[in-house]
Amino acid sequence: MSKTSNAPETPDEEPTAAPDGVSRRRLLITASASAAAGALAGIGGTAAALRRTTQAGEAAHSDTVDLAASVPFYDQAHPAGIQTPPQRYAVFMTFDLSKTATANDLRVLLARWTAAIGQLVAGKPIGTVDPSRPDAVGADSGEAEGLAPASLTVTVGLGPGVFTDRFGLREKRPALLRQLPALPGEHLDPALTGGDLSLQACADDPQVAYHAVRNLARMVTTTAQTRWVAMGFGRASAGKGQQTPRNLMGFRDGTRNVSTPEQFDEHVWLTDAGAMTGGSYQVVRKIKMDIENWDADRVSDQEQIFARTKDEGAPLTGTKEFDTPDFAKTDDSGTKIIDPRAHIALAAHENNGGLMILRRSYNYTDGLNAQGLLDAGLLFIAYMNDPQHFVTLQTKLGAMDLLNEYIEHIGSAIFVVPPAPASGGYIGQALFE
Questions:
Q1: Dyp-type peroxidase C-terminal domain: which residues (predicted)?
Q2: What's the pLDDT band for 2 if we cut at 50, 70, 90?
């Protein structure tokens, strides 16, 4: 693959090739003053690109986004926020149960969260915003007053630490729920890893999603403490019937995702799982992207890494986005057109015994890092009926993916999502009965 040294000085100038054996990452790290200047230019360029992407997305989806829409929460076959077509924004937060929390504390928290979520998804406050007593604190923080439901969903996950003798739940621990093993290519930050509880709030209005998590977090009191949080935008994977969006590397993400009811039944939903039947396992990864270095690479090289065209999203062996990749096809010299180490080749179900997971990811940005470079990437959220499926895929990707030069897994967690609550009941109720 070609190596590049720096980005074009003008929009029409082609990048120059880097010397053989010099990594793209090293080229950026060894630059000093020019890197700082490039970072500032990159911020403006990225912001403009994000605006264009958002505007284009609004135009493309203006007939499908209804901010007045609400998503059912109670009495569903499966929990909302998984098969639900991905909304545009997400807030994901994890919590640690306190050392003094009891089984009853956990049960009460889940019951209170359930009642609050039922209000929130209907576009209602969870309590008084402006209490009559001047010395009273509002039960609801109020920033969503006047805002529509915006298809809000809140999905609650339970981590391995919930299913212990301490809470009397060891015997009800889902058979496949355990901490993820160490995987190739990850450099996890403990501050972005783990958790006993998770909240995934998704909505087509970012303030609605933030309001939901903010107010649910206020309800934990002494039962739990917040652990880590990530805010996502521009959903980086598509649901059925949605135009495939793009990740921050500019490529379509989610073209071959789980989409049909049959695929959900086969790959996502839990069956014969006791209290968790109808739910799913949730794996979350925070993946940092080396944005500036990626932007300095020529598009033809980027396309080889993904094995898709950047504009249409077609596999390199096809012409349209949804053409099936031909992983055996070769060029005139006998070389495979799709490199076996390309991202889609390693992740394809054809090359993994039919294995699939539901990707429901979002882009994120945390501003600038300590080096003054863009701190951004992918909030990878996936659902599956066996976490080993993710482990199998990530073991291959982490070891061989051509994309690894530009990404780093810095956060990780695993949870099980209970089935949807019944009217008058609460999330995880069967665990306590």
A1: 244-420
A2: very low
